[in-house]
User: Fold this.
Amino acid sequence: MTDLAFGLTMTVMGMGVTLLTLYILTLVIRLLIKLFPYKEEEGEK
Assistant:
């Protein structure tokens, strides 16, 4: 494998892992929002 092919392979794999990690983080955040919904405090106004 040439240096160019290796570099491109590592770039594509790195981008893929980064996007997958962001997607998983989004799912975790949505799950936490459903488990702990935001409630406004009534005494503020």
